[in-house]
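Example 417, ligand N-(iminomethyl)-L-glutamic acid.
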Amino acid sequence: MIPADLVVSGISELATPEGNTALAGPHTGRLRIIRNAAVACHEGKIVFVGEEAECIETVQPTPDCTPVDAAGGTVLPGFVDAHTHLPFAGWRETEFDERLKGATYSDIAARGGGILSTVEAVRKMDRKSLAATVRGRLNDLLAQGTTTAEAKSGYGLDPDAEIMQLEALGDAASGHPVQLATTFLGAHTVPKEYRGRRQRYIQLILDEMLPQVAKRRLATFADAFVDAHAFSVEEARLILEAAKGYGLKVRLHADQLADDGGALLAAELEAASADHLEFASDEGLEAMARAGTCGVLLPAATFFLMMDRKPPGRRLLDAGVPVVVATDFNPGTCPCESMSAATWFACLTAGLSVDEAITATTLNAAHSLGMADQVGSIEVGKRGDMVVHDFPNRYHLVYRFGIPRITAVVADGKRVV
Ligand code: NIG
Ligand code: FE
């Protein structure tokens, strides 16, 4: 008999991708489906996945075992949110109102609003208060079924404030059930005090920020925003090549508002991911497929920016790029932390099927973070991360859009919600 300290039973349908690597092309939507299922965990890891009848015969609950009754619900892997800007301060609802009245995101950035207004708010925070803010957000993510998340700096834009953001992420995540992967985004935009001296700011990233981030192991990834209001391809290449030299892996904000050649740069750098991609060229997507770079769609942000372009879901699938779907949670372009919402937009605006969206928000997202051997699917040996949804099968995840119906969250083999 297999000992278990947590058993989820009463599952009408369990759906999960399988394996330790991303699924691409026609394989993307290949899920294992088990009806009348049960899952058992022991000491944080999954020890049994299968039919409930078999579970009863092979699993021995320990005396202190936690039973979780799914009550006829659907069990999916914990969501992996591969793109967030978690350590922000303040909201930007007045800019949102301006956008509703016709201003564009780029107009607001050009007059010093947007990212720079959040930078101002973050610079007024200290490590402790920012960590407390992030901790609250991690609780919210967990309640929405996210058990692993990526989080970026990028609202400090000077050595102290960038490092303070990364430290706050570490403080908030320490001992928290949500596993965090951290990304240094000093190249989010050029801060006000370096306007007209952008070369000096880039030198500051190269000479001061990157060495400290690497030496203190404050981040796994480095990211840059390639855009007319942020950095050119040449500037991003310089920064991210240096980051690679320090052992950091690379992600990229690419081709969000125009075809800037971001997808091609991501492929050239063998980046773990290129994110946004609304305007990516066919050539760029083909290069990403060859390089094994994941394409991260942020369809809630595309929607929230009221863009005419749709997120290129089918184009990525057809090109053979592993597709990831994430929130982009941030105060400017996606003030929504729900991965359920990201799946609604992925299916309804980016053309993914429900099964493809499930893989894109779990296994493929984990792969893009280099964590697919530990999380992203419900399989024996992986971390015990799963979500009970109050509906009879996975299609309802998107079919009944508008309200997440999460009734229980298990993270690290413990019931946390
Ligand atoms: O991913 N595109 C650039 N960065 C963020 C927006 C950050 C902000 O507006 O505060 C994004 O959409
Ligand atoms: Fe982003």
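Summary: The mean pLDDT is 98.
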